[in-house]
Design brief:
Blueprint: E1 22-23, E2 31-35, E3 38-44, E4 50-56, E5 66-70, E6 76-77, E7 80-86, E8 93-99, E9 102-103, E10 108-109, E11 124-125, H1 132-136, E12 147-149, E13 173-176, H2 197-201, H3 204-210, E14 214-217, E15 221-223, E16 241-247, H4 260-273, E17 277-282, H5 299-307, H6 332-347, E18 353-356, H7 375-382, E19 390-393, E20 413-415, H8 417-428, H9 434-441, E21 458-461, H10 470-473, H11 509-528, E22 532-536, H12 564-568, H13 570-585, E23 605-608, E24 623-630, E25 635-642, E26 648-651, E27 659-666, E28 687-690, E29 694-702
Parallel strand pairs: 13-14, 13-22, 14-17, 17-18, 18-19, 19-20, 20-21, 21-22
Antiparallel strand pairs: 1-7, 2-3, 3-7, 4-5, 4-8, 6-7, 8-12, 9-10, 11-12, 15-16, 23-24, 24-25, 25-29, 26-28, 27-29
Length: 707
């Protein structure tokens, strides 16, 4: 499909014909549903008094070409307003005017001057005249509002594509930002294709070469880029959705409404052809409408008291998201909306799973109190349409809930923030970290105590979009967020980072060598720990944000993937690529039971210190060794980790008869010797000298030929 040559079909909608005829329609399905003879519209609004459906020729039209009033006696069933518009075709643009009581003291914020988005709109368009301010101030915002697009989801040719649904045990997740991955001028992509779904397709070979099995896309629900505290900044990350069913239209190469969904599906289909899953970072904890001073886009004007958790004084919003409002996710109408949206992305868009931002918010009731058995979370876990998808929780919120290790259900995976912190602190050289580090690399068994749990449901990561990049983690002691315009008050203050002598960039070769070695240490531990590894975009080539650990508003080269770093850091890229392949090649790293289950007979892991069978768990210990037994292939692996700033000599296990140890990885060595699959055996070696801050991985092989 040559997207950029699509004609603007939307400009023909309604031109040159009389007003569309209507009939009563029906209350289901919700949203705009295409039939051969027209379109059925249905929307929920319990307490409204009057509803108008507005149809538009173009997104920047100041007035609709047809206003269809809905009669409460004919076009309303229970809480649902509905109408059937005869002969209307897909690609029509629409919105709603909802009239009722405006009384914030009761929680009601009906405002018939505002054009509202349908929460079920399958696509949304934003015109050149769009204004967030117009949705915030009193008065009619129709000329400046986003509009929904009528989409027929069943005309797309999937060419036999189905979601891949790789098991966690075989997954390597790569978190990326759709725009930021290809927006940089040196991306090698045609200028008007940069930062788009189509542009991302051009970089699939890079991800395939690295060994990625799953991309986790930062938010792609329609959001408002202008939501920022300064006109010079933007909402770059997108963690403030407007429409849960709609792909973000600004990521489209083509600006035509009728192909927004298709361009996203083209991207998914291309990833699947390469064997790579697509999972979405979804935000169901709050919306872009903000607090009581914020704009009215949709939910506030439809039924404010249903969609949001309100404060004790219902004029105000409870805020467990840190973004001004909290979606009332366990309210039955909102529950249905969330489930319907997830079903839409799986069945119509073929995505393979979801990572739920601040998922602990979804465990709160309509008053904000934590629930033991939140209905929405159980419904997501048990829904048959979602049964093969990945569902991953960010198991905390900004209201004080931290549920890593205790999130409900039998299927949910979790971002393991404790793993991140334990590994960071141990490799930095903190005291008292050897036991937490050991637990984390062995699947966090002390954290996840539920019987029969798959250890791969721990999503292990060192960095993510939120915080330092891996390069910056070893280059900065402190955050440097002044460019965000908040006086360096935003972002985390404790990153468990170190600059190893100089803050930021340095030409000092010793400091630079230490930093690179620590990066390789982090990757070695991450990719060979038990659990599912997740890599953050660009860490494999030392992407830097120059010490900014909260780039939510930086839509510029601070955040974008700098493709010039790929060749400059090719040895590190190859090191990471080799580690990924090594993980894939050996069943021990894909085991679906814990390496060290208590009272389960012979474990797969044995712990050591610098002396065999004598792990040093003391407060001042900075080293650990362990032997893994891959019982499937009858092969041993021996790991030695020296987080100390001086060299240490480690005793080696005795060779089994006919076997030798081969060094696979020694992070202290320079490329290509830092990763070797065909190196010489450590013949008759009893000890291995580990240099400061280094990790060594040995693999057992036959004496004559390494296997």
């Amino acid at each position: 499909m040559e997207l950029k040559n699509h004609k603007k079909l939307k400009t023909r909608i309604g031109h040159g014909k009389a007003a569309y005829k209507t009939n009563t329609g029906k209350s289901y399905p919700l949203g705009a549903t295409v039939y051969p003879n027209g379109v059925n519209f249905s929307i929920f609004s319990k307490n409204s008094e009057k509803v108008e459906l507005c149809l538009f020729h173009d997104v920047d039209d100041a007035t609709p070409f047809q206003v269809i009033p809905l009669d409460a006696t004919k076009n309303k069933s229970f809480y649902y307003w509905h109408v059937f518009v005869k002969d209307l075709k897909p690609d029509a643009l629409y919105g709603y005017k909802i009239y009722g009581e405006y009384n914030p003291s009761k929680g009601h914020r009906f405002d018939g001057t505002k054009l509202l988005l349908d929460p079920y709109a399958r696509a949304v368009v934003k015109g050149e005249n769009y204004s967030r301010t117009a949705a915030t101030l009193p008065g009619d915002n129709t000329p400046y509002a986003m509009k929904g697009v009528v989409i027929d989801p069943y005309t797309y040719d999937w060419e036999g594509d189905e979601p891949l649904n790789h098991p966690y045990a075989k997954s390597i997740i790569y978190e990326l930002h759709v725009k930021g991955f290809t927006q940089h001028p040196n991306s090698g992509i045609e200028e008007d294709m940069r930062g788009t779904y189509t542009g991302l397709v051009e970089k699939i070979p890079y991800l395939k070469d690295l060994g990625i099995t799953t991309v986790e896309l930062m938010p792609v629900f329609q959001f408002d880029e202008t939501e920022a505290h300064s006109p010079l900044l933007k909402n770059y990350w997108g963690y403030s959705p407007l429409a849960f069913f709609s792909p973000h239209s600004s990521y489209c190469y083509c600006n035509e409404p009728e192909v927004i969904a298709d361009e996203f599906r083209d991207m998914v289909k291309a990833f699947h052809k390469a064997g790579i899953e697509v999972i979405l970072d979804v935000v169901f904890n709050h919306t872009s409408e903000g607090d009581h001073t914020g704009p009215v886009f949709s939910f506030k004007g439809l039924e404010n008291t249903f969609y949001y958790i309100l404060a004790d004084n219902p004029e105000y919003f409870a805020d467990f998201s840190g973004c001004g409002n909290t979606l009332n996710t366990n309210q039955y109408i909102v529950r249905r909306l969330i489930i319907d949206a997830l079903k839409r992305w799986v069945t119509e868009m073929h995505v393979d799973g979801f990572r739920f931002d601040l998922a602990s918010v979804m465990s709160r009731d309509e008053h904000g109190n934590p629930m033991d058995n939140p209905p929405i979370l159980w419904e997501i876990e048990s829904h048959p349409v979602l049964s093969r998808t990945k569902i991953i929780a960010e198991a905390w919120d900004t209201g004080g809930l931290y549920q890593v290790g205790s999130f409900i259900g039998d299927k949910w995976a979790e971002w393991n923030g404790i793993y991140r912190d334990d590994v960071r602190k141990f490799l930095r050289g903190d005291n008292g970290m050897v036991e937490p580090f050991a637990s984390s690399i062995a699947g966090s068994l002390e954290l996840y105590k539920k019987p029969f749990r798959d250890p791969n449901r721990s999503i292990n990561f060192i960095t993510c979009h939120d915080g330092f990049t891996l390069n910056d983690l070893v280059s900065y002691n402190n955050k440097h967020n002044k460019a965000n315009g908040e006086g360096n008050q935003d972002g985390s203050n404790e990153n468990f980072s170190s600059n190893y002598g100089v803050e930021g960039h340095t030409d000092n070769p010793d400091i630079e060598a230490t930093r690179l070695r620590q990066i390789k240490n982090f990757f070695t531990i991450l990719l060979l720990s038990q659990g599912t590894p997740m890599i953050s975009m660009g860490d494999e080539v030392r992407r830097t944000q120059h010490g900014n650990n909260n780039t939510y508003c930086q839509d510029n080269e601070i955040s974008w993937f700098d493709w010039g770093k790929v060749e400059g850091n090719r040895p590190l890229f190859e090191f990471v690529k080799n580690l990924i392949q090594f993980r894939k090649d050996h069943p021990i790293f894909q085991l679906e039971k814990y390496w060290a289950i208590p009272n389960s007979g012979e474990p797969n892991i044995l712990w050591h210190g610098i002396k065999m069978n004598q792990p040093d768990w003391s407060y001042h210990s900075h080293s650990i060794a362990y032997t893994l037994q891959d019982k499937v292939s009858d092969c041993l692996f021996h790991f030695m980790v020296n987080a100390y700033w001086e060299p240490l000599q480690f005793e080696l296990p005795e060779n089994r008869i006919g076997k030798n140890w081969y060094c696979i990885t020694d992070t202290y060595l320079s490329p290509p010797d830092d990763f070797r699959t065909n190196g010489p055996p450590l013949a008759h070696a009893d000890f291995y000298d580990l240099k400061p801050r280094s990790v060594v991985v040995l693999k057992e092989g036959n004496s004559k030929n390494k296997t």
